[in-house]
Design goal:
About 70% of the residues lie in helices and about 0% in strands. It has about 90 residues and is mainly α. The chain starts with a helix and ends with a helix.
């Protein structure tokens, strides 16, 4: 999903990682049918980021649409031969 966002020009990979992680965590946590989410947290920095994400609450409609677009983009990137995916990046 990060590669899809990068391919669409939303930023570089390193700046997108925390954004996508935040959105995906919030998406997972605030689903009606989900009562537990297992998250790997080995560093204090990661714990702080996760607490900040949870404190933001559920995704806004815009954030949800952004995630959906990136998911669809990631799906189309993976369904094509690798040379088609590379060609799109240039």
């Amino acid at each position: 999903m990060i590669a899809a966002a990068w391919a669409r020009g939303y930023g570089d990979v390193e700046s997108l990682r925390p954004i996508v992680a935040d959105l995906m965590l919030r998406f997972s946590l605030f689903q009606r049918d989900v009562d537990r989410v297992i998250i790997g947290m080995r560093k204090v920095e990661w714990i702080k980021r996760n607490v900040e994400s949870v404190s933001k609450g559920p995704l806004t409609a815009d954030e949800y649409r952004w995630l959906q677009r990136m998911r669809m983009r990631a799906f189309t990137l993976t369904k094509q031969p690798w040379w088609h995916r590379i060609r799109r990046l240039f």
